Every structure is written in structure tokens, then in C-alpha cells.
Amino acid sequence: MKEEASNKSRRNFLKSFGVTVGAAGVVSSFSLLSAAKAAAKEPGETVNLLTADGQLVQVDKNQLRPTVNEPLDELQQRGREGIAGKSFVMVIDLSKCRNARKCMSACQNHHQLRADQHHINVLQMQDADHTAPYFMPKPCQHCDNPPCTKVCPVDATFKRQDGIVLIDNERCIGCRFCIAACPYSARIFQWTEPKDAEKYKDLTYNIEANVPQKKGTVSKCLFSADRLREDKLPSCVSACPNGVYYFGDRNEDAVTNGTSGETVRFSKLIEENAGYTLMEELGTKPRVYYLPPKNRAFEFNGDLLNEENLH
Amino acid sequence: MKNAIKIIASLFLIVVFTTTVVKAEDWAVPNSSKKKQNPYEASTKNISSGKKIYNINCKSCHGDATMGNMLPLQPVAPSDLGSQAFLVQSDGEIYYKINKGRAAMPTFEKTLSDEAKWMVVTYLRSFDKNKKASKQVAEIKNPEVTDVKLVLDINQEDKKVAANLTGLTKKGDRVALQGIELSIKVKRSFGYLDVSGDDAFTDDKGNVEINFPADLPGDREGHVNLLVKVTDDAYYGELAVDRIATLGVPTDPVNPLDERAMWGTRANAPIWIIVSYAGGVIGIWGIIFLVLFQLIQLPKLAKNKE
């Protein structure tokens, strides 16, 4: 009796199983058929696209998919971690700067900044009444003891293992404590809707380039951390036409000139040219080194309105 | 007929005027500078070092000499410095122009040493068909060879890098190639650091030996990426050997995030700051709650007394 019952239930199970599978098969084949019909139905809707090898092709509009951006959290995570084993430094040779301002425009292009916003700025300097004036590019100093990260209440600005000080605009609440703390005035605040905000609104935020910029947050020089990941020099360094910038890895004791591509020993360069850092008395330990404006390649007498000084 | 004469006359005038305009735009070099002589001889060594300096300082705008691949700058493109039209100038004139610069051409008065500038002049002069110095040809006695081989011998203990350059003659003998400059470079993040020194020319046995800098950092195990190549591709094409060698100083990269510091984020803030901050918060809230608790207790106390 018991056996019979169990047999019955097994039979029932098999019966219902068969019906379900069959029904599923029918349904799926119908859906496949309808999908195929739909694809065949509208061949008229095509768009012209240019392939990578320069051929113009027609593609069905139904088959277009948006390109897959790297997900935000992945970018955030690798941006926080930094590049292991590196220790980036910059050397700026003041004797070669002639205010070409190519570094500034390259930087503004890269980081989607307006012409009046500076991650790097070329300043006209005169240290005292009777000293010689000179031009001085001033990016973020990427201090080893940064005052800005100390004051951030939300962990938005931080230092990573390769020495770069970054800011996460997704976390930034716009309190501007860091702007007040920075002795080098390296940070800017996005008071208004950033440049091309509409154009870049679908772009995934990249913490290593601070793009797209966000209204109501702080932005700063990042040594073009996204380019460093591809072993490229920062935008300003490669844009300079006068060989002002050297950039490299202190762990390797080598820096490369962005203009000539010449690689030299970092320690020798600093030692032989009496390199210094800005406001070292504050104990901020900057990573940007300056070579004094001795034997300047380009004349500058402090008078910018005089045409002879515009190079 | 009269018309034809008029046209010819006006054409003549136009030609005269335009040439004077062009002449006025010419780069006037003082006579004293024109007469300056290049104090350095056109040896292979000087030409090669001139080429190095040229590649670093001039190539980015002027392109390769004689190749005409300069930057298409506006309004005036840089001239091809290897062209005969340029090389009709005297050494002194070229030297003066490198020194002073004009418009987009920067001055190299302070950025290059006198010797370096003369080396560049020497290098450019080597393209001059009229003055092609016979010295340079006479100096190299290497026979025509095929199958050029560059062999590296690295002594890791004494930090010496030796290279040997040989080629196969038509008769089938392997001979040493003499007087060829080699570049010994170390790969760094953004370029190659040249460690070959001033005198990396092959001797009569085809050998070059250099002392690797004793204080150059390598990776954790002291490995460095070494690249040895014939400096001038014009001789035997691009000939290079790369090798990973234990020549560097073993360097452990310091991770600044390993230590707790004031500038750290929450994850690596100093213990004392976490303790004192947390203590402060807990203490203050504790007192507030204590006061509140006692306030709540007040009515009870009053009742008890009654």
C-alpha cells in the first residue's frame, strides 16, 4: 500500500515535470521567434559609425550598446590605494621658466577647469625690493606632512602610498577647511557649475583626475594620477616647451625631463643645483623641489606689461 | 608693346621689393660672431656627442637632421638643420643663432655649455656635403660587416658592465668593431637613465667597460633593467640588448601609510588622538547622561522623602 502511494506520487511528479518542461520549451521558442521577428522587422533604423581602422559602417540601432565605463567603486578603490612601490617627486627648474603657461592650459584641459581656475599657476615672483624677479610655477606640493588632510572632517582628502595627496569629490562636503589649512593656496573651490558640466554629466567620476568636476566641492592638483598609472608624465610636465619640469620616482632616484625626455639622478640634480622646497620652516615636507632661478635662460625684469617680457 | 614693357617693369619691381623684404627678415649675425671658428675637431666622438645633445635639445622642433620632419609651426616652420641651404652658413653664424635664439627659437646661451653648442655645430657640419671632413671617415677603420653582435658581460660583484661589439666580414671572419659609441642605460619609471659616462667607445678589441654607479637603487632584490645599445643607429641599424641584472642597491620602498600619523585618515590616525578624542566624547556625553539621569531621579527622591 505504502509502496503504491510512493509510486503514484513519483508518477505524478514526472507527469507535472514533463508538462512544465514542455510548456517552458514552447514559451521560450515563441519568445525566440518573436525576438527574431522583431530584429528582422526594423532594418531601416541604422546609424553610420566610423570603425577604429577608419571604415564607415552601418549598424542596426537595436544593436547599439553604451560603452561600459569602469565602475565607480573600482576607480575609487584603486585611487585610494595608489601605485605600490612608487614615491613621486617633481623638480621645477626656475632658471628655465619663461611664462609660456603651456603647463596651465594642459592642466585645465585635463581636469576640465575654466581658464581662471588653477591646479597649477605660474606666478611672477620678486622676493625682496632689490632681488631679481622670476617666474615660478606652483602646483600642489604633495606634502609628506600635509596640513590639509589633517583638517578634513569626512576623510575626503587623503595621502596615498605613492605620496600623492588626492581629494574624493564624492565624499567632499565643501566645508573648505582644507583650503584654509593649505599654506601654498594649492586648492580651489567650485563655486559654480563646473565647465562643460552638461557635456560630462554621464562620465563616471574618476578620483585620480577629479573629473567630472563637482559644484560645491574642492579640487586640486593630483600630479595627473590617472596618467601616472599608464606610465605617462603628468600633463603639465609633458606640455612644457622649455624643459622646466622634471618628474620621477624618488625610490628609483631618477627624474625625467618632460620636454627633452632626458632622465637624470634626482639626488645629483638637487645637490648640484642647490634645490630647495617652499616654506620648509612649516615642516610640511613638500614633494615639489625647486632649482633656484640662477643664470636664467629668459630675461624678466618684473614688468609684465612690457612686451619684451612676454615670451 | 608698351603694355608688355610696363608688365615686365612692374614684375621686376615686385621681385626687387620682395627680395629686399625677405632680406630684411633675415637673421643678422654680427661680423665678429660670424668669424668664430669651431675649436673642436670633427671626430666621431664629437659628432656623436653633438648628436646626443641635438636629440635632447633641438630634435623636438627641428626633427631629424636631413629628414625634413620638423614641427609644422606657424608662421615660420623650423628649418631642417641638416639641409645644404642651412649649412652654407659659417660655424660662427650657427653658433650665434643657437646662443641667441629668436621668436619661437629659444636661447641656449645659459642652458647649454659652450662645448655642448660647438658639439652640435660639429654634428650639423657632418651633414655638409661641401665641407664633409675627411677626418671622420679616416678615423673609422672598420671593414664592412654583417651580422653585428653585441655581447654583454656583467660582473655583478664589482658592478662592472662590459660589452663587446663584433661583426662578420665578407670573408667570414668575426672582427672587432672599433670606435663605436655604446649607450648603457637603466630603465626608470619615465625614461632611461644613461650611465655610460663620457667615454663609452669600443676599443680595438671591440670592448667597452663601465663602472655601474654604486649607489643607484634597484628593486627589493637590487635588480635593474639594463639596456645596452649602439648610440648611433646610422651605423648598424637599431642594435640593442636588454638584461635584468643585480647591479642596483636593494631598496625597500617605504609606504608612508604604514605608520600612524596626524595627517592620516581615520584608518591610520595616531592611537593617542583616537583615545583622547573618544575619551572626550564619551566623558562629555557620560556627564550629560548622568545629569539627565539624576534629574529623572529627582521626583523619586522627593517622593521617598515624603
From TrEMBL, chain A:
Cited CDD domains: PsrB
4Fe-4S is among the record's keywords: yes
Alphabetical UniProt keywords: 4Fe-4S, Iron, Iron-sulfur, Metal-binding
Entry keyword Membrane: no
Sequence ranges assigned to domain 4Fe-4S ferredoxin-type in this UniProt record: 131-162, 163-192
Coiled coil residues, start to end: none
Family annotation (InterPro entries): 4Fe4S_Fe-S-bd, 4Fe4S_Fe_S_CS, ET_IronSulfur_Cluster-Binding, TAT_signal
Taxonomy, superkingdom: Bacteria
Protein name per its UniProtKB record: 4Fe-4S dicluster domain-containing protein
TrEMBL record, chain B:
Alphabetical list of Pfam families matching this protein: Cytochrome_CBB3
Membrane-spanning ranges: 271-296
Presence of the UniProt keyword Plastid in the record: no
Domain Cytochrome c residues, every copy: 45-128
PROSITE patterns attached to this UniProt entry: CYTC (PS51007)
The keyword Transmembrane helix belongs to this UniProt entry's keyword annotation: yes
Coiled-coil residue spans: none
Annotated signal peptide: 1-24
UniProt KW keywords: Heme, Iron, Membrane, Metal-binding, Signal, Transmembrane, Transmembrane helix
SUPFAM superfamilies recorded: Cytochrome c (SSF46626)
PANTHER family reported in the protein's UniProt record: ALCOHOL DEHYDROGENASE CYTOCHROME C SUBUNIT (PTHR35008:SF8), BLL4482 PROTEIN-RELATED (PTHR35008)
Name of the protein described by the UniProt record: Cytochrome c
Source organism per UniProt: Paralabilibaculum antarcticum
